[in-house]
Design a protein that fits this description.
Keywords: Glycosyltransferase, Metal-binding, Transferase. This protein is α/β, with parallel strands linked by helices and about 450 residues long. The chain has three domains: about 5-50, Transferase, Pyrimidine Nucleoside Phosphorylase, Chain C (Transferase, Pyrimidine Nucleoside Phosphorylase, Chain A, domain 3), CATH 1.20.970; about 80-330, 3-Layer(aba) Sandwich (Pyrimidine Nucleoside Phosphorylase, Chain A, domain 2), CATH 3.40.1030; about 335-425, Aldehyde Oxidoreductase, domain 3. It has 16 helices and 13 strands. It is globular. The structure holds uracil (URA).
Length: about 450
């Protein structure tokens, strides 16, 4: 087989076989196929697209390109949750302890933030001392001992995807449905869970800007998961504005803790309950057979984990087990705090009809809370607290948001960008708030 022929076949719009896809993935991972040929194939795929079979073969080849986590030592049905990435998306911080408190073993690998989106691993490091680099044995033991562990992705999990994603990032070939679906699912399959609940974001802060694209991506991923023998569900959720009110690592940790104390923002709690219900059902924790009754029972269990304090205790256990300061769960003043807090005031009176969500993510990055390159260091205390969101009314001079940073010059740059991201109109919008849950596949 020659890479030249594989590229030409795809360039001419023909379907690649499983052997051809494996030849490429294995050769590229070993360094035998050069970047320029891999880039040419990515561009050919970008224009000619891939069939469902090709997408599945690519996913499996990438999932099998390195280590695969064996979670069989953990008792029970392991359910993984994955978000396609957004702004203010701190779901894992609250949902993982809620699900664990309801008896789902949570063995989760998470990533760091890049660009305008955040990452769970950075957020968890807001707990002073928290360790995210665990050995596989320590990870498995911890899940068996306390029902929950969250660690950073190991270097050798789906290494083909790691290389290809970096290549796609610099060759304008990221936003192809099959390439995104196979990239995400290869990591999920390598991470070894029995069932997968996907949170596919749609809107200005998401990869998939349109609802049609989000549905298509969700559909592709569900098909891949099922073809690989895993129960897979996708929730399509709104990312036309940040989730909750906090954007930025320590600020989001505090908001997740507030939610576990029963005083979190409504939209964030709703997303946790929606995704959590799917996790409990997939994990076999619900007795009800009727689908609507099962969802009601699952929500009740999840809400009980908040009301009883068991989810908050589970978060404390997790933080302590990974050598973080567990006291911060009950006393959030122990989390990193910014020295400068600047209020952004509304320039005029009216209704907030639109928020450029990716721009709010960029404001957090400018304030120090994000990462421009993989090497950037993150200021864990930096970010924003939104006081007004889409559908709200504001008076001229009323506070729209607080900017948190350790550098007053950054606050000024972010303030300007923030004001450009908010659309304030005199006329009341017909739709008050955008629906949070768009659909479930
Ligand atoms: N996230 C991934 O892991 N891969 C993609 O291709 C896009 C988003």
């Amino acid at each position: 087989m020659r890479m030249y022929d594989v590229i030409m076949k795809k360039r001419n719009g023909r379907e690649l076989t499983c052997e051809e896809i494996r030849y490429f993935v294995e050769g590229y991972t070993r360094g035998e196929i050069p970047d320029y040929q891999a880039a040419a194939l990515m561009m050919a795929i970008y224009f000619q697209k891939m069939t469902q079979e090709e997408t599945f073969y690519l996913t499996m080849a990438m999932a099998e390109s390195g280590d695969r986590l064996d979670l069989s030592a953990i008792k029970g049905i392991k359910v993984d949750k994955h978000s396609t990435g957004g702004v203010g998306d701190k779901t894992t911080l609250a949902l993982a302890p809620m699900a664990a408190a309801c008896g789902i073993p949570v063995a989760k690998m998470s990533g760091r933030g890049l660009g305008h989106t955040g990452g769970t691993i950075d957020k968890l490091e807001s707990f002073p001392g928290f360790q995210t680099g665990l050995s596989e044995k320590a990870f498995l033991d911890q899940v068996n001992r306390i029902g929950i562990a969250i660690m950073g992705q190991t270097a050798d999990l789906a290494p083909a995807d790691k290389k290809l994603y970096a290549l796609r990032d610099v060759t304008a070939t990221v936003d192809n449905m099959s390439l995104i679906a196979s990239s995400i699912m290869s990591k999920k399959l390598a991470a070894g869970a029995d069932a997968i609940v996907l949170d596919v974001k749609t809107g200005s802060g998401a990869f998939m800007k349109s609802r049609e694209d989000a549905y298509a991506l969700a559909g592709e991923m569900v098909k891949i998961g099922k073809a690989a023998g895993k129960q897979t569900v996708a929730v399509i959720s709104d990312m036309d504005q940040p989730l909750g009110n906090a954007v930025g690592n320590a600020l989001e940790v505090k908001e997740a803790i507030d939610t576990l104390k029963g005083r979190g923002p409504e939209d964030f709690l709703e997303l946790c309950l929606t995704l959590g219900s799917q996790m409990l059902i997939a994990g076999g924790r619900i007795q009800e057979k009727d689908p609507d009754a099962a969802l009601r029972e699952a929500r009740k269990m999840l809400l009980h984990s908040i009301e009883s304090g068991s989810a908050l205790e589970k978060l404390e256990e997790l933080v302590k087990a990974q050598r973080g300061d567990g006291r911060a769960v009950y006393d959030t003043s122990l989390l990193p705090k910014a020295s400068v807090v600047v209020e952004v005031k509304a320039p005029s009176q009216g209704w907030i009809t639109q928020i450029a969500c990716d721009e709010i993510g960029m404001c957090s990055l400018i304030l120090g809370g994000g990462r421009e390159t993989k090497e950037s260091t993150v200021d864990l205390s930096a970010g924003l607290l939104l006081k007004k969101k889409t559908g709200d009314f504001c008076q001229a001079g009323e506070t729209l948001a607080q900017l948190h940073t350790n550098d007053p010059r950054k606050a000024e740059a972010a303030r300007e960008r923030f004001l450009n991201a908010y659309v304030i109109e005199e006329e009341r919008p017909s739709e008050k708030k955008p629906a949070l849950i768009k659909g479930i596949l």
